[in-house]
């Protein structure tokens, strides 16, 4: 029996490559994004752990003040922005740059609203008597400001990327030839995928942070 008819050879040919082989074939931009998301995750895990320890050591009972309502509103806004961002790949696949531009514009607007609501939430924390820092570092309130501000900073980074991509969409959507080139370019398709991955990650991250604040505040 020849090797072509050997079932073992056919099975071996279909064997999936090892995880390291798939990593080696991963595009550099995708690899850089995944590494960045891992670093961001580790940083926020450390900050949340520090907040939990400081909160438990403070001895202040939970529920003394309500969590700022603007934090709740901003959570709803960010979830909505994640929904609008999720529509972008479908519109891109349909070659509908006009709708894609509106979709990305709505996502960018919701991101701005989220950042503004976070600022109002910080002001509400101050009104409730939660300082930026306490004497001797005994206050855990400073971690709420720090964690929220760092999250907004990472969101702003995604918004800059989103704005650049939106301007490119609006520019290429004005001409049929540029539209065709833009839609058929795999580089732009990958950029949109990476943008969506980052945006959804930031969304899920805030929902988890909000749950921690809601439980311990």
Percentage of residues in helical conformation? over 70%
Number of helical stretches of at least 4 residues: 9
User: Class by helix and strand content?
Assistant: mainly alpha
Strand content: under 5%
- Termini separation comes to 72 Å
Number of strands: 0
| Sheet of most strands | none
Order of helices and strands: HHHHHHHHH
Residue windows where pLDDT falls under 50 for at least 5 positions: 1-5, 10-14
Determine the mean pLDDT.
84
Estimate the global geometry from the Cα principal axes. elongated
Radius of gyration: 23 Å
Give the SSE map.
Elements: H1 7-14, H2 19-24, H3 28-58, H4 69-86, H5 88-93, H6 97-127, H7 141-172, H8 176-184, H9 186-216
Report on this structure:
- This protein is elongated.
- The protein starts with 6 loop residues before the first helix and ends with a helix.
- It is mainly α and 217 residues long.
TL;DR?
The chain has 217 residues and is an all-alpha fold.
Keywords for this structure?
single chain, 217 residues, disordered N terminus
């Amino acid at each position: 029996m020849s090797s072509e008819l050997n079932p073992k050879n056919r099975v071996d040919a279909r064997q999936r490559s090892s995880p390291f082989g798939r990593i080696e074939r991963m595009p550099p931009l995708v690899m850089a994004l995944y590494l960045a998301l891992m670093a961001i995750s580790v940083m926020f895990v450390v900050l949340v752990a520090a907040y939990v320890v400081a909160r438990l050591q403070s001895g202040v009972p939970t529920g003394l003040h309500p969590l700022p309502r603007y934090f709740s509103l901003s959570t709803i806004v960010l979830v909505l922005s994640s929904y609008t961002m999720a529509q972008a790949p479908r519109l891109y696949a349909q070659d509908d740059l006009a709708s894609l531009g509106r979709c990305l514009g709505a996502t960018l607007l919701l991101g701005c609203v989220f950042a503004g609501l976070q600022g109002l939430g910080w002001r509400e924390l101050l009104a409730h008597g939660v300082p930026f820092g306490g004497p001797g570092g005994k206050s855990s309130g400073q971690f709420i400001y720090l964690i929220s501000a760092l999250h907004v900073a990472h969101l702003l980074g995604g918004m800059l990327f989103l704005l650049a991509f939106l301007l490119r969409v609006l520019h290429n959507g004005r001409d049929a030839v540029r539209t065709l080139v833009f839609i058929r370019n795999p580089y732009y398709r990958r950029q949109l995928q990476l943008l969506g991955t980052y945006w959804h990650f930031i969304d899920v991250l805030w929902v988890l942070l909000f749950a921690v604040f809601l439980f311990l505040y």
